[in-house]
Amino acid sequence: MNIYDIAKLSGVSIATVSRVVNGSEKVSEKTRSKVLDIIRQEGYTPNVFAQGLGIGTMHTVGILVPTISDQYMAKCVSYLEDQLTVHGYDCILSCSGFSIEGKEARTQMLLSKHIDALVFVGSTYSGSGESVEETDYIREAAKQAPVFIINGYVKGDNVFCRLCDDRTAMREAVGALLAHGRKDILFLTDSRSYSAREKTAGCIEALEGAGIPVRDEMFLHTENRIHAVRDYLLSINPVFDAAVATDDGIAIGAVKFAQEKGLSVPGDLCVIGYNNSSLAVACNPELTSIDSRAELLCRETIDNILAILHGDASIPACSIQPGRLISRKTTDF
Amino acid sequence: MNIYDIAKLSGVSIATVSRVVNGSEKVSEKTRSKVLDIIRQEGYTPNVFAQGLGIGTMHTVGILVPTISDQYMAKCVSYLEDQLTVHGYDCILSCSGFSIEGKEARTQMLLSKHIDALVFVGSTYSGSGESVEETDYIREAAKQAPVFIINGYVKGDNVFCRLCDDRTAMREAVGALLAHGRKDILFLTDSRSYSAREKTAGCIEALEGAGIPVRDEMFLHTENRIHAVRDYLLSINPVFDAAVATDDGIAIGAVKFAQEKGLSVPGDLCVIGYNNSSLAVACNPELTSIDSRAELLCRETIDNILAILHGDASIPACSIQPGRLISRKTTDF
Question: Which of A44, A101, B34, B91 is the most exposed place for a label (fewest CB within 10 A)?
């Protein structure tokens, strides 16, 4: 139970509960006594409020990532850490891996450290989409502290999702390839996460929009290691004149495949990556990539955490930012 | 005060204190009563021992990095997290930045979370080498928990350094370039850390060993961003036929410079990076790089932490592993 439950039981907004607890003048006497009655009935200690309101807290935010060796996760964590530090908050980070057991255990560990808010980075925390129970631990966690998910979607009280519109970004990227005369698109992914499913859906929408039959063999599941992708493509030798990937490392594997086969990039083969990481710039030719706006989503998350911890309850449960195509040398547009 | 102080006051080894506390038979009655007397005199609680001995602890290890956006740090943290989790330990990570204030504050924060051991990742924690006081906070921390430093050197009780022999690795790499006919070596770095100083010393030793005059303009300080390095080199247009860098990102900047100038790699210009990151494989031609053995240093650290927390005191204060040159396509050997 927390400030959100009290707001619900009192039939008022969280902002109002916050005002009551802070002794603000802007609350009617009737509302004030109703809220205070609920507080007394439910036996809340001031600490419960402190947790929700930023008064006398540990000033610590927990961050959970599946793995920090992924450049997207590392970029997000780096930004969150920097900004939270600037605002006087400590961060504690834990890596959960991709298993449900690991995710649950690390979430509990972070909650036990008296954190004021919890940030999950990556769409693996949305689960596989197969059952709602997969994400129950996130809704449970959200009863103890506000929960943010960066680029993942989970529905629940006190759960806030900050997303990149991966579906539209991918639809537009594939649409651009088709508009520039590419006919055989290959879609490469290493994941079945929420984000990967959105990207897949965007690709299918673009193909359907152009009247191109969607065939299973256009969608390949691979490791996210440059040489592994290259060797996999060499082994199956698919016919394609454009590749889109759900991560830059995978896309660079396709570039290496082209180089191995003597195909020109982008002449014979266009390639578009995702996440606009430093790998995209290391590659030669430099890789066109979709910027998934990690920094923007993190900035929004920080602003929202600070607002919530200062008692502002007017935070949208979900917000979506557009992705952005960064054109470099592996496309001809 | 902790188990190490008790060992010192009792005039016995930490292993002996551990045996006394664990009720081992292998301690003489005289030693046992001496140690127990000290324990009583100093008023230690069992928790203090638990911290040192792995009994009833929080099973949590703190990890400090300057920034997680650096691939070397991310690789180390990823490995440490994975392995500590396998052994039933939680990790909490914090990013300190590079300032002394940030390092001290985050160290205190981690110590306040009841950690069993503290791992500092990166040679920035060795300080600039200008004064011993810079690293006093590490020796202070080591009074509360065993401290490990990955690829940094700090002298102190209960401080354990796990290093890569960067000096020798760089001396051998530059030696190989000279042996293969290169004459004008450029050394590129973004850092003045312990590790960067060791690499610089190794380069100088190789040059001197070959009777080549060491000139200031052979050593360039740059940002660690691929395009920034490329543009810097284009702006100063140095004459060189080989470049060595203290990180792969910097080295790839030199490769991009060569491509911009129409120079062939490795024909006109050999390039060697450092850390053998995924950037080295993303690059084309793929980058020869010195593997600084992050995984090996981390594995040793994990083994040592587990040994210490189980009461084994026979851990060397310092160990050094050789680096390893991974030859790819930016060198002709």
Answer: A101
